[in-house]
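Workshop exercise sheet. Pairs work together: one partner reads the sequence aloud, the other fills in the structure field after running the prediction. Swap roles for the next sheet.
Pair: D.N. / O.F.
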Amino acid sequence: MIFKPYYYFDTGCAGYLFGCGGVGKCAVVDPHEPDVDDYVAFAAAKGMRITHVIDTHVHADHRSGGPALAAKVGAPYCLHESADVGLHFAPLRDGQELELGNTRVEVRHTPGHTPESMCLVVRDLRRGPEPWFVLTGDTLFVGAVGRPDLPGHARESAGALYDSIHAKLLTLPDELELYPGHFAGSACGAGMSGKPASSIGFEKRWNPMLRLSRDAFIDALVDVPPKPAEMERILRFNQGRAEEPRS
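Structure field:
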């Protein structure tokens, strides 16, 4: 498998490109708008074609390059089927598997940060049948979890996030590598580590949010920093609703 992370240290964001070099198929996850040409160039340099462009959720902190990249390479732009957006996308469902040659991607719907949030469990069949890593988007970070207040109903969303993490992520093998959508410097969570990757086992042992009961988790999580003013503008862009609402 070819795997390349993209780290944006000024904003604490991460994106990923990975796929099967033998078959020449790859996916780009959580791409940023300014780097569309970079993803295309890297894939071409490795003899790969971008066949899937995926956002783990509708981002509110940066302009997604997903729709533009998908249009440029002729690939589907993918979101979870529950995404509420004003643009065309290929819907993904919980439990669905995407085929990228020997690389396989399992979709796990993990609502909480946003209703449409999902994580991607990735396998390399040349390595074996067991999963190699999981891309956790804004659901689970190194040392923290995603904020639940962006879509509103913060307490309800925090409860959904607790359930998603415990049912869909902490049931994965402890040794599984974990690559989140953010690290320290992002406004999408509080208390994130500056380390951009971890493992399921490490987070079980050291992430303070994972040691809390459900009620304590909710109480702790609703106390988050205020949303940056530009979040609403960025969110409208990523929803395909870039125009300011009319009064």
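Discussion prompt: DSSP finds six helices and twelve strands in the chain. What would you look at next?
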